[in-house]
Design goal:
Length: about 230
């Protein structure tokens, strides 16, 4: 019998801060003191400092000595890198998925079911105009396409960039109209997959990713011009 060890204070603070950063609840480029965090969650400054050091190591914050930390904004270079990666992986995987329609119909239909299930979650989120709910369904949608490939490297690489993908997605979803346009694009992608239109589905996934990248670039430009 194994007794699950309770998370340490440092681990609890780390999880709280990390989730707050990824959900855009902490403002980018704003200075937060260790004492402010400690007061907000009812701990001493020591576990806060330890958690912030880990977040710095992960590239999510910059530490300002003796003052606190600043949440980092994702850079133009990081945005370009992430989308080049996604285009390469998701473009390949969507072609692979469609090619399985005739040769591995059971696996194809299972993946198609997952995609349609994700669309239902997205529709519900769009009615609630909930960016976080939509992001959860959006993640399921794109990961379903990749998982069908059964390529461990693809899945591992994609997961290693999930934090940046989440930050980018939620930043673009601040504009509620993006929820509806993304849902429309996802529906068009699924229709092409179901029809077995390989080239059309491939182009639609690239166009969808390009739209998200353009919106993120515009958001970054606005921040830089403030």
């Amino acid at each position: 019998m194994h007794i699950k060890k309770a998370p340490s204070l440092k681990e609890q603070v780390y999880s709280y801060l990390r989730e707050s950063i990824l959900n855009l609840e902490l403002e980018v480029d704003k200075l937060y003191s260790d004492q402010w965090v400690a007061n907000n969650i009812g701990v001493s400054r020591t576990p806060v400092r330890e958690a912030v050091l880990q977040l710095q190591h992960e590239g999510l914050v910059d530490i300002v000595p003796y003052r606190g930390f600043i949440v980092k904004m994702i850079s133009t270079e990081e945005i370009i890198d992430v989308f080049q990666l996604r285009e390469a992986i998701e473009g390949f995987c969507i072609k692979h998925l469609i090619r399985c329609k005739e040769t591995h119909s059971v696996a194809f239909n299972k993946s198609l079911y997952k995609l349609k299930e994700s669309l239902l979650f997205q529709e519900k989120a769009s009615k609630n105009e909930s960016s976080n709910e939509f992001w959860d369904a959006d993640r399921l949608f794109h990961e379903s396409i990749i998982k069908h490939s059964n390529n461990k490297c693809f899945n591992d690489i994609y997961k290693s960039h999930r934090d940046k993908i989440q930050i980018i997605s939620l930043e673009t979803l601040k504009d509620k109209s993006r929820i509806y346009s993304a849902l429309s694009e996802h529906n068009a992608i699924v229709a092409s997959i179901e029809n077995g239109s390989e080239d059309d589905a491939y182009q639609k996934i690239l166009d969808h990713l390009s739209s998200t990248k353009s919106l993120m670039m515009k958001s970054l430009d606005k921040r830089n011009n403030r």
